[in-house]
Amino acid sequence: VEISALISKCPQCMKQNMTEPTIQQYDDVHGNRWLNRDDYRTLSLSSLGGALEFYDFVIYVFYAKIISELFFPSTLSPFWAMLNTYGIFAAGYFFRPLGGLVMAHFGDLVGRKRLFALSIFLMALPTVMIGLMPTYESIGYAAPLLLLLMRIMQGIAIGGEIPAAWTFVSEHVPPKHVGFANGTLTAGLSFGILLGALMSLAIAKLFSEAEIHDWAWRIPFIVGGLLGFVTMYLRSYLKETPVFQAMQERKQLYQGMPVKEVLQNYRLSVVLGMLFTWFLTACVVVVLLAMPQLLIGTFGYTRADAFVLQSTGIVMQVVGCVLFGWLADRIGGGKAMVLGSIAVSVCALVYYSALGVWSASAIFATYACLGLAAGAVGVVPMLMVRMYPAPVRFTGISFSYNVSYAIVGGLTLPVVQWLSRYSDIGAMYYVLFLAALSVVCCMVFMRKFERV
Are residues 50 and 162 in contact, defined by beta-carbon separation less than 8 angstroms? Predict the structure, then answer.
């Protein structure tokens, strides 16, 4: 199927031809070939760059407790200080749609590659600034306000980064390898979380609690920002996607506002994309990012032990993302996601119920299994790609992903914190609900987008 068959030069024909988006719409660009050296090079650089940028975004969570003590008045209760800290974390999510929509708009009109350098710059700069910022003791309420501003900048950056990366990689590889490619890329994002966890573990091993509280907590932010500028250099070696180049040569780039086209003709894709993203937040934010706070604050784990357990879960999720992506190429994205969602439900039920009851080794094993099951999120970008045609794909993925994260991603930690007032394992019920919702969405997806 040629790209020229998808859209014509007139907007009316464009709308008619874009009503049935399928992944086969760029087969004429790649053919039915296997992955080659250029594909693996693109995957490696994209995954590594995504890992470094995601590290910058999530390192905040690992030091949320210390930040709550340093950037808010000491007269504030620990509960409200932590809630405010999570609120500032949520601000990064609330501003993701702004960055995502602006970058996606120009990404669909002028190219995917150009947005990569901008997104990493907007991430690296505020990360360094957080590491150098004075605290409440020095500048009063200006400290949390500056912290909020930095998180807003990071949110704008990450809002453009992830949809751009998914689109970029999907259009670089042959259609029959899109699942594996996106699973590998998502594994790279999870690897960024692992880098943050390993950095936190190293800081916990090298410095005392007093030293970490006084100044050592700044090291991960400064290092992360510097790594971000390294990422800018790496991105210079990437090439524009063959799909975008083909559309550009045939003068078939979308003329107008891509977001308007998405909202008018792809409402089901937007809704499903938002719900799949909601499930993704449970697997990343709750299962991985917030786990040390639960283990330390509720079940008496030391900081070092909590980060060791978390690192194990992240490693398993990295493996799971690649495995589920590989599986999706063979049995279909919808079926792979159903299996992953069910696995997450079972593993979450066992793990959370075991906390404070089972032995340390048993808890270690159950959390490793939960991390592996959470690798099902590696299928999410493949599902997104299948729901939008190339001319508006970047915008469609960005809108559904970022708007969802702004609504539910930013509220995840505050909601889990609220649930913890009623149950020590309140997070489990949040995960179980979203896993069940994911299964329902997969049924709709398979009926609409994976019909045989």
Answer: yes
